[in-house]
Design brief:
2 domains; Threonyl-tRNA Synthetase, Chain A, domain 2; alpha+beta
Length: about 180
C-alpha cells in the first residue's frame, strides 16, 4: 500500500521557515530599535548633563566676574587711600616746619636794627620785606638767612633796597627772596 500524505509538508516547512525569518527579522528590528532608543536616551542625558554644566559654568563665570570687578574696585580704592595717606603723612611731617622756621627767624633777625613788614611764601619760594636801620643790618640779616637750616644758602638774594624816611628817621626799605628747604 502506498501511503499518501495529505498534509502539505513542504508548504508547512516553508511557512515555518517564513515564520522563523519573520521572528528573526522582527527580533533584529526590535533589538535595533532598542539600541537606537538606548543611544537616543544616552545622548539626551549627556546633552542634558552638559547643558547643566554649561549653566553652572556661566553662573560661576558671572560670580567670578563680579568678584574680579569688586577686586578691581577695592584696588582702586586702596590706591586712593594710599595717596590720601601719603598726603596726610607729608602734612604731618611738615606741619611743624613753618613754626620752626618762624622760631628760627626770630633768632636770625638782628634786634633793634630790622623790622619785618611782610613775609610771603609761594611754593618753596619765600619773599621777605622789611625796614632796616642801615645796609649793614640788611647784610647781616642776609648772612644769617644763608646760615639757616630752613633756607638754601645760595638762594638768598636782595631784590631791592632803597632809602625811606619814616617818622623823620632815615631807614632802608628792602625786599629779599630765597628758597626754603622742604622736608
Amino acid at each position: 500500500m502506498i501511503k499518501i500524505n495529505l498534509i502539505p509538508y513542504v508548504e508547512k516547512k516553508k511557512e515555518a521557515d517564513l515564520k522563523r525569518q519573520i521572528i528573526v527579522i522582527s527580533s533584529v528590528f526590535v533589538v535595533f530599535l532598542l539600541i537606537i532608543a538606548s543611544l537616543h536616551i544616552y545622548f539626551i542625558r549627556s546633552i542634558s548633563k552638559l547643558e547643566k554644566e554649561v549653566t553652572q559654568a556661566e553662573t560661576q563665570l558671572k560670580n567670578l566676574t563680579k568678584i574680579v570687578g569688586d577686586l578691581e574696585k577695592f584696588k582702586m580704592e586702596k590706591t586712593k587711600l594710599n595717596k590720601k595717606l601719603a598726603v596726610i603723612e607729608s602734612l604731618d611731617k611738615n606741619r611743624l616746619a613753618p613754626v620752626l622756621f618762624l622760631d628760627d627767624l626770630t633768632t636770625i633777625i638782628p634786634s633793634k636794627h630790622i623790622w619785618l613788614t611782610a613775609l610771603s611764601e609761594s611754593g618753596d619760594k619765600l619773599r621777605v620785606e622789611g625796614i632796616a636801620s642801615d645796609n649793614s643790618a640788611v647784610s647781616n640779616f642776609m648772612n644769617n638767612l644763608k646760615k639757616s637750616r630752613h633756607i638754601k644758602s645760595e638762594s638768598v638774594e636782595l631784590i631791592f633796597s632803597r632809602h625811606a624816611v619814616i617818622s623823620g628817621i632815615k631807614l632802608k626799605k628792602f625786599t629779599l627772596s630765597c628758597v626754603m628747604n622742604k622736608g
